[in-house]
Amino acid sequence: MRIAVLDDDPSQLQFVSEALTAAGHDCHVFAEGRALIHRMQREIFDLVTLDWNVVDVQADAVLAWIRKNCDLYLPVLFVTSSTRKRDVVYALNAGADDYVTKPIAAPQLVARVSSLLHRTDRHETVATSLQFGEYLFDLRKGRLYREGTHLPVTKKEFKLALLLFRNFARPLSRAHILETIWKHFTDIPSRTLDTHIATVRVKLGLRPENGYCIVPIYGYGYRLEKLEAAPASSQSLKSRLNVSEMKSGAAPESQSTAHVLK
């Protein structure tokens, strides 16, 4: 597999490159973030490793560029000396797939990379898009459309919406959703899921008046349902849903979602 390695420490670049090359991978090393981005505009990589601090561009900016411009399922692994919990949480919420700290033994590094590549293989399917009623999910580009109109969702909102539609009318536990979308969910604030659910509901228009409903299940999780016909007493239904959301700890829909971790 073709792997891009970003780190401004020559010894670390050599270590990672030698370890992954010995495991059969084709490594390309970069000491500057701009050089990596420039190459990724012309070439395709199967996995990228990032270090937090490089001389020209911070790794979070490189990660943001990757998530905006590259394949949805391109795995990104942080290999860094930072052990601060906030850095770990930030990287994972920003779209990183895994996070390891230096020093790391070569066998462990190779195992982490192999796990991420294997996970990516499971995402590869014959279908490049999935249709659920008026909603079309472009799996390759990570773009979501409703009746032909593009909906501006983030990567995690896309995955969360897709998980709900793939499990239509099936209760999903909070633990399952967090593990599927956030991976290392033990470090995720408890209200992050509730805020993302509220954002997906608004952006996709998943409301009773549109024939859809994300039902909060008290003490368990959420379930996406389709209403055969919009109920006449939709205001009453929405009131009941708001009460259920308050019991489950979900953020009211009227609250600002500006603090959503993306």
The chain-level structural class is: alpha/beta
- Supply the CATH architecture of the largest domain: 3-Layer(aba) Sandwich
If you consult CATH, what is the topology of the largest domain?
Rossmann fold
- What is the fourth-level CATH superfamily of the largest domain? Response regulator
**CATH C-level of the largest domain:** Alpha Beta
Q: List how many beta strands DSSP finds.
A: 12
Computed over alpha carbons, the radius of gyration is 20 Å
Helix-residue proportion: 40-55%
Shape: elongated
Number of helices: 9
Q: What is the total number of structural domains?
A: 2
Oligomer: single chain
Could you describe the largest sheet, including whether it forms a barrel? 5 strands, parallel
Low-confidence spans: 230-234, 245-262
Strand content: 15-25%
Which series of helices and strands comes N to C? Answer: EHEHEHEHEHEEEEHEHHEEH
The main sheet orders its strands as 2-1-3-4-5
Distance between the termini: 28 Å
Describe the structure.
The chain is of the alpha/beta class and 262 residues long. The protein has 2 domains: 2-125, Response regulator (Rossmann fold); 129-226, Orthogonal Bundle (Arc Repressor Mutant, subunit A), CATH 1.10.10. Helix content is 42%, strand content 20%. It is built from 9 helices and 12 strands. The protein has helices spanning 10-22, 33-40, 59-69, 85-93, 106-123, 155-166, 174-182, 191-204, 234-248, and strands at residues 2-6, 26-30, 47-50, 76-80, 98-101, 129-132, 135-138, 143-146, 149-151, 172-173, 212-217, 221-226. A 5-stranded parallel beta sheet has the order 2-1-3-4-5, with helices on both faces. A hairpin with a 2-residue loop joins strand 6 and strand 7 (135-138). Helix 2 runs parallel beside helix 3 (59-69) and helix 6 (155-166) packs across helix 8. The chain is elongated.
